[in-house]
C-alpha cells in the first residue's frame, strides 16, 4: 500500500482526521496567484485548427476535474485559446458554476475560459487544480467577477489575489491524497453511468417489444385530463403555504426542491385544477428543460404546478412509474418529446402531450415492469449516493487543506 493510500485510509477512518500531521500549516506562505500560476493567452483561429479537439464551457461539468466530452475546431467560429496537456481550463465566465478541468490532451477552448498553467518552481501542476477548486478560491473568483448578466473574471485582477501555499513536498502529499479520492469518485461515477446505460437498454428492449406488438395507446386515452398551471402565480408567492412545482423542480424522473418556492393557491376551480395528486405525471413544457419528466409520489405534501409545467392525471395512477420511465431521458419515449417541440424557444403544447403514444402492457406485464423500474431506481440511487459521498469527502478534505484562513 502506498503512503498516499495509507493516509487516505487514516483520513476516512479517523473522525479527527483534520488534526493529522499532514494538515499542519507551518511553512505555508501567502502568495499572489500570478506568482505561482500563469494565464496562457495563445490565441488561434478555428480555421487553422479544424481537426483539433475543442472544449467549450458546455463540455465542462461543475466540480469535475475531468473533460469527458468535446467537439472539434471545425464545429466553432471565432478566436479560441490553445491549451496543452496538463493545463487547467477554468470557466472564467459565471465562475459560480465551478467549471474547471485538467487537460489530458492538447486542443483549443472557448475564449470564455482561462487557460492556467502552474509555475513549477512555486506550485506543482498536480496540486494547483485542487487549490483552484477550493471554496476559498472559488468564492473569491465570484467576488471579483465583473458584469451583471455574465459575470467574468479578468486575469489582471485574479493574478493579484493572495492564497496560502504549502511547501512543494507538502503539496505533493496533499495532491496524492486528493487524486486518490478523485480516482475512487470516478469509479463510482462510472458505476452510476453503467446503471443508466443498462436501464436505457432494458427500457428500449421492453418498450420496443410492446410497440412492435401494437400494445400502445394515446396518453390522452389513459388520462382523466392533461392541463398546465395558470399564469400570474407571482402574486401568490408566499413564505409559507403549499409547494409550487416549477420547471427547475423536475429532474430525471424525480422532483427536486433544492430551489423551493411556495404559494397561496387561488380559490375555486382554478386552484383545484392545478393541484397535484399522487400518481400524477408532471412534465416541463416550456424553457430550456423541455421534456423533463417526474411523477408525484404518495409522500408529497400539497403542491401546485406553474404554467411552464404540464400536469397529466392518469385514469390508473399505478401506471405513473412506467410512463415517467418511458418519457424520462433514459427512455425511448424521449424521442417523441424532441420531435414535438416547436418555436425558437423550445415548447410543447398540450395537444402534443395528449397524442403521445405510450406502452399499454397487460396487468401482469405492468407489475413486472414496475418491479424492474423499482430495482433500477434502487441501483441508481445507491450508485449515485456512493458517488456523492466520495465527492463530499474530496471537497471536505480539499477545503480543510486549502480554505482555512
Structural features, described:
The chain is α+β, with helices and mostly antiparallel strands and 405 residues long. The protein has helices spanning 3-13, 33-36, 128-133, 135-143, 155-158, 168-212, 269-273, 320-327, 334-340, 350-355, 363-402; strands at residues 29-32, 37-39, 43-44, 53-55, 71-72, 80-83, 88-91, 100-102, 107-109, 113-118, 162-165, 216-218, 223-228, 237-245, 250-251, 254-255, 262-263, 281-284, 293-295, 303-305, 309-314, 357-359. It is built from eleven helices and 22 strands. Strands 3-6-9-4-5 form a five-stranded mixed β-sheet, with no helix packed on it. Strands 2-10-7-8 form a four-stranded antiparallel β-sheet. A four-stranded antiparallel β-sheet has the order 13-21-18-19. A hairpin with an 8-residue loop joins strand 7 and strand 8 (100-102). The longest helix is centred in the middle third of the chain and has 45 residues, at 168-212. The two termini are 33 Å apart.
**On the 0-100 scale, what is the average pLDDT?**
87
- Give the end-to-end Cα distance, rounded to a whole number of Å: 33 Å
**Helical residue percent?**
25-40%
Low-confidence stretches: none
Strand order of the largest sheet: 3-6-9-4-5
Class computed from helices, strands and strand pairing: alpha+beta
Strand content range: 15-25%
Number of helices: 11
**Rough outline:** elongated
**Spatial extent as radius of gyration:** 25 Å
Main beta sheet: strand number and arrangement? 5 strands, mixed
Number of strands: 22
